[in-house]
Amino acid sequence: MKKIKVGIVGGSGYTGIELLRLLTQHPSAEIVTITSRGEAGTRVEDMYPSLRGRVDLVFQDPKEAPLKECDVVFFATPHGVAMSMAEELTQNGVKVIDLAADFRLKDTEEFKKWYKMEHTCPDILKKAVYGQPETMRDKMKDAMVLGMAGCYPTSIQLGLLPLLELHKKVGNIVDIKQTIIADSKSGISGAGRKAAVNLLCAEATDNFKAYGVGGHRHSPEIVQQLSEFAGEKVSLTFIPHLLPTIRGIFSTIYVQLTEKGMEQDFQKLYEQRYANEPFVDVMSKGALPETRMVRGSNYVRIALYRKEPNLLVILVVEDNLVKGSSGQAVQAMNILFGLPETTGLEQIALAP
């Protein structure tokens, strides 16, 4: 079988190393080049000894890397990089999978507001597809550019998808006038691989805090997709927190139900909706998901609770670097090239 020639732009960060870990185990992928402006000339195994014997590559400057010879290029870069290179790559038939936010938000003014930069290729943005397999699979298949879902958004969207789909279908399941509350926590790696005081071990260990309470740039992305699921504008209160762990996202979602909603069997609804989704596990009634249940894997695990007749509590866990980022991007690559979605992604979560 012909190998998929893969390029990675921005390979020195956590999502880049996670792409390498996953793609080196992928039977149909051949990593042709990996770039890093700051580490150009450095052997990958010297920076990441965990890949010794598995990756025989040297970081290249993006200007010198043979990206146009690839079938697909992943961007594990800061916001703004992918859109500066997407036009040239797509004109040469190269598919683009962006792990940053350049192609997530359809409204360029919203993008400018939250990311403090102009969108430089709005024409490509119009054709780009939001990269979330469980919700956008059919549209993703023929896309040239995918803007992959963020880590927090993935947990919240998959946590609410069956509920909001039912609301759109039969109406009046959720009290949309009452804001949905997403209380979400992320491991420190979600902030990226950078030198910052608030991410130092002495600052983040043995500590727990909220951030972005006044507004977080994942909020418009989440609302954009939830509103599409529901068929109407969804009101959301999203509060992120920083966990003193390396990996993992835990979202606890609170939804006010209508009288009609209180009549529904949500356990059955979720089990049926995700029955054929290989990476979404609806846990049995009474189960409590933990972040270690998904560590290092591409799985999302969901549990449902009815605390009161009109209050549904949804618990969602994922690994922010895998299903929340690089793993989901590899899943997207599988879709683009007609492979089984599970290819190269069946790693079992690490325990303990």
List keywords for this structure.
Dihydrodipicolinate Reductase, domain 2; 13 strands; Semialdehyde_DH_NAD-bd; seven-stranded mixed β-sheet; 11 helices; oxidoreductase; EC 1.2.1.38; 352 residues; six-stranded parallel β-sheet; alpha/beta; 20% strand; 2 domains; 30% helix; Rossmann fold; AGPR
SS strand fraction: 15-25%
Largest sheet: 7 strands, mixed
Low-confidence stretches: none
Tell me the CATH superfamily of the largest domain.
Dihydrodipicolinate Reductase, domain 2
Explain what you see.
Belongs to the NAGSA dehydrogenase family. Type 1 subfamily. Its EC number is 1.2.1.38. It holds the Pfam family Semialdhyde_dhC_1. The protein has a seven-stranded mixed beta sheet. The protein has a six-stranded parallel beta sheet with strand order 2-1-3-4-6-5, sandwiched between helices. It has eleven helices and 13 strands. It has helices spanning 14-23, 44-47, 81-91, 108-115, 122-127, 133-140, 151-170, 201-204, 219-230, 266-273, 322-336, and strands at 4-9, 29-35, 72-75, 95-98, 129-131, 145-148, 180-186, 209-210, 236-242, 249-256, 280-282, 300-308, 311-318. 30% of the residues lie in helices and 20% in strands. The chain has 352 residues and is of the alpha/beta class. Strand 3, helix 3 (81-91) and strand 4 form a beta-alpha-beta unit. The chain has two domains: 4-127, 3-Layer(aba) Sandwich (Rossmann fold), CATH 3.40.50.720; 152-322, Dihydrodipicolinate Reductase, domain 2. The mean pLDDT is 95.
